[in-house]
Amino acid sequence: MPLGVLLLSILTILILFGFAHTVLDRMRLNDKTAVFFFIAMIIGTFIPNIPLGSKIGINLGGAVVPMVLVVYLFVKAGTGKEKFRAVLASIISAAIVFFLSRYFTGEEYSSIFSDPFLIYGIVGGLVAYIIGRSRRSAFIAGIMGIVLADIAQVIANIVNGVPGRINIGGAGVVDSVVISGIIAVLLAEFIGEAREKMGGGTDKKHMHFDHGEFASTLGENKVEDNDKSKNDFNEGGNKDEK
């Protein structure tokens, strides 16, 4: 069983038992939707590649479903700044993974690294978190960075006249996609939690979590205090009239 399929199966089970509810909620992704996409990726991995021409194909589980998930999350992104970070992180992650794949080509590296796709997934996830920062942006960049790098490799193969059929999202790409997405979210979750506890414990007492982002409640409290003062004044005036 491919590593990506195994990880997706484990994630699906964890979600069904409620162990990932908090993380998914912060990404504005409910349990049912996450399970649907993960199962679709698992099934899509075993479906034959869809031909896009005489020499190019695309895999459902390794490219189509992940891109649909990315678009779904991107539309739900809270702010324009978050969307910008997601796009920027995706492009930079893709560029680094692409050039890394050029470096780790050859039998000498295959003997050192049993599965280069594992390296691509780890690097993609790290870059996605560093630039994306938020859970949602990091996850989007973690997935899209690998897919874009694979598309770039396909284009390079066509330009260089590499013989044979080329598939987007095929082979071990699904492993890299899953690993990259998981690492990006885990880093954003654990490091984000640690930073909030260490540096934001007192600073965020006036904050509340709204639509996947922290929002200030200071203005709300001030309005409530003003309304309360007005009500007290009106009540006092009514008593004096009596």
Automatic annotation (TrEMBL):
The chain crosses the membrane at residues 6-24, 33-50, 56-75, 87-105, 111-131, 138-156, 168-188. Residues 216-242 are annotated as: Disordered. Keywords: Membrane, Transmembrane, Transmembrane helix. The keyword Transmembrane helix applies. It comes from the Bacteria. Residues 221-242 have a biased composition (Basic and acidic residues). Pfam families: DUF1614 (PF07758). The keyword DNA-binding does not apply. This is DUF1614 domain-containing protein. It comes from Irregularibacter muris.
